[in-house]
Design brief:
Helix content: 55-70%
Number of strands: 6
Radius of gyration: 42 Å
Mean pLDDT: 82
Strand order of the largest sheet: 2-3-5-6
Order of helices and strands: HEHHEHEHHEHHEEHH
Distance between the termini: 32 Å
Strand content: 5-15%
Number of domains: 2
């Protein structure tokens, strides 16, 4: 899921969320994370990309093995014989005296040469075994190994992004449910107040007025509108979690029934978090492996300017059933052969100036990757500091707004009692009820912000900050 889509879901779901519909199955955060890791198509695609790079590593390692080719063919063969000078006596030792008709130069020689008279087969095998390559093979293997490790770390980074998005959606659902409970509680106070005002207006007792009735009806309309928004947010929140998990996500997915609460985060300094990021964050490791791969590729291109020492083995077999075999050491007979050979040699490229330029280019790219790594590390340090600052701010905010939340609850309870006995006005009640809503929502929002900051710090450092060292 793209970030804009997830953000829209979180914004809408944070707008209020009703309790899960009947039949929905609740899941804990760990259960949803586990499902997302197993079912998310994006992670599966990343795993296949890593598998492709691992195949390249296997190819590089097998470069130490001999290579070559095997060729074999079968075709028709003409009839060719060797004769003595009299043209009648066949003599395979004197093929230099072959008659003209036998070699196809007579009146019917051409037709005899192309007319199939037998079967011809030839098989050739050639193998080349590298002996010494001035480090080309080892540089190729090193580059491929670093590429695999970089891809594996990128895969871990993709998983960390997914987990961050799941945590955001999960805690947003918890926040929305908490606000929904606040609506329900405030709606109960409003029901009592409306009942009291209607009774006083009906029998003419008390100080209630039509203005009081309209004021409370306006608040009722506001709450009803929020309830409709809540239903929409509930559906979007659950859809967002299912989208993050993948097409095989349970249709009845919902978060567990536990109340929204702040995570327990062990106290660590900013320096400890930055050290953890440099040690554990997958992007840091991926950058390190990427630089190593670039340097190995640069070494490979440099070493391509040196020769390769190899052993070459060859074998050949040929036979034609309708062609005589000359018995002469100086004859090159392509129709009859049987032999094998082993030789040593070397291969030296002569486009040294071109290869030297390519090597310089790759060395420059390796240095560029090194500088990109340093640049990225600065950005990661900023991410850690930002998440840590937000965590501490949300932690302090929870302590502050918690007092206001308790005071707001006591205020609305007291005003509701006074209104019931005629000691308060509808305006006092509406003011207290609005303050109650704001205090409860702000307290729940602070807990949500704290948990989201913890999730962001987990992503920035590469460690689960809710767990001890």
């Amino acid at each position: 899921m793209t970030k804009p889509t997830l953000l829209a879901i979180l914004l809408l779901s944070a707008g209020l969320l009703l309790p899960a519909p009947a039949g929905a199955k609740p899941y804990t955060l760990d259960e949803i994370l586990d499902m997302a890791r197993k079912e998310n198509p994006g992670l599966a695609a990343g795993a296949q990309a890593t598998a492709g790079i691992e195949a390249q590593l296997l190819e590089a390692r097998r470069s130490y093995l001999p290579t070559g080719e095997l060729n074999s063919m079968v075709s028709q063969a003409p009839e060719v014989h060797c004769y003595e000078a009299d043209g009648k006596t066949r003599n395979e030792l004197n093929c230099q005296n072959t008659g003209t008709e036998a070699i196809g130069t007579g009146p019917s020689g051409f037709l005899r040469a192309i007319t199939p008279a037998g079967v011809f087969t030839r098989t050739e095998l050639k193998l080349v075994q590298p002996v010494y390559t001035f480090g080309k093979l080892s540089a190729g293997v090193a580059a491929a190994e670093s590429g695999v490790k970089a891809s594996q770390e990128r895969q871990i980074g993709l998983m960390a992004d997914l987990e961050l998005n799941v945590r955001k959606a999960f805690w947003a659902a918890k926040l929305a449910r908490e606000i929904s409970a606040t609506l329900d509680e405030g709606s109960g106070f409003l029901d009592q107040a409306q009942k009291k005002i209607e009774e006083e207006l009906a029998d003419g007792s008390g100080d209630a007025s039509v203005t009081d009735r309209l004021r409370l009806r306006t608040m009722r309309a506001e709450i009803d509108a929020r309830i409709l928004e809540a239903k929409r947010g509930a559906d979007l929140a659950r859809s967002g979690l299912r989208a993050l998990i993948g097409p095989d996500a349970p249709a009845d997915l919902d978060v567990d029934e536990d109340a929204l609460g702040a995570l327990a985060i062990p106290d660590r300094s900013i320096d400890q978090y930055e050290e953890a990021a440099l040690r554990s964050r997958p992007e840091v490791k991926a950058l390190q492996h990427m630089v190593a791969a670039k340097r190995a590729l640069a070494q490979l291109e440099t070493r391509k300017q040196y020769p390769d020492f190899v052993l070459v083995g060859s074998a050949a077999y040929a036979y034609a059933s309708s062609i005589d075999t000359p018995k002469n050491a100086f004859y090159n007979d392509p129709y009859h052969a049987l032999g094998a050979a082993i030789s040593a040699g070397f291969h030296m490229p002569l486009d040294l100036f071109v290869k030297n330029a390519r090597a310089s280019k790759l060395h420059a790219e390796a240095e560029e990757a090194e500088q990109r790594k340093r640049e990225a590390l600065n950005g990661i340090s900023f991410e850690v500091e930002k998440a840590h600052t937000e965590l501490k701010e949300a932690e302090e905010r929870i302590k502050v707004v918690q007092k206001g939340e308790k005071a707001g609850k006591q205020w609305i309870a007291a005003v509701a009692q006074n209104l019931a006995v005629g000691l308060a006005e509808a305006k006092d009640f509406s003011d207290a009820l609005m303050a109650f809503f704001q205090a409860r929502v702000r307290y729940a929002q602070s807990i949500y912000d704290y948990n989201i900051a913890a999730a962001a710090l987990t992503r920035a450092t590469g460690i689960d900050v809710s767990k001890g060292d």
